[in-house]
Model the fold of this input.
Amino acid sequence: THFSGRLVKMIGDACLATFNSPTDAVRCGMAMQDALAERNQGLAADQQVHIRVAINAGEVRLSGKDVFGEAVNVASRVEGIAPADEIYLTEAVYLAMNKAEVASEPAGTHALKGIPEPVKVYRVPPRRVVRLVASEESDTSQYGDLPYGGMHKVAAVRPPSRWTPGLMATIAAVVVLGGVTAGWALLRP
Done:
């Protein structure tokens, strides 16, 4: 994708993806929400697809092409509290991401099933997109009615990085539920 993500696996109607950068993970979530919002325009309610995005950062255990660990478990639990059409991220992501690129606001501290400590959660508010580069590529004025300003039409500001399991200490884990195949497919170049 434009955000240097790697689809790890599909889990029912959810997907698990990894990113080198927490900021790229959040921007990818924004792009997925925009792609589906654009797709949903003019469709009957029963034909629309709505997803929720949950993002956590932390170390994971690699096993073949799969990832496991507390970071994935927390992301999965945060997904359970995220409303449809929203992007929720943990404090770990909030502290590590580039706040100049992504607006966020607190969404409370939550006790999550199977997680020993309460988790502070943030949300990415729609219609508060930060533009870092002014160019034709980043002109999304025609996408003003989309929640994140047409993020799905804008390439990542940073050059794509290569996913290298041996060199990564942290990975942002994203769990998205509900129509995720459509969202991920809409982002493929």
Remarks:
- Helices lie at 22-40, 70-81, 91-96, 180-187.
- The chain is about 25% helix and 25% strand.
- Residues 20 and 168 are 8 Å apart (CA to CA).
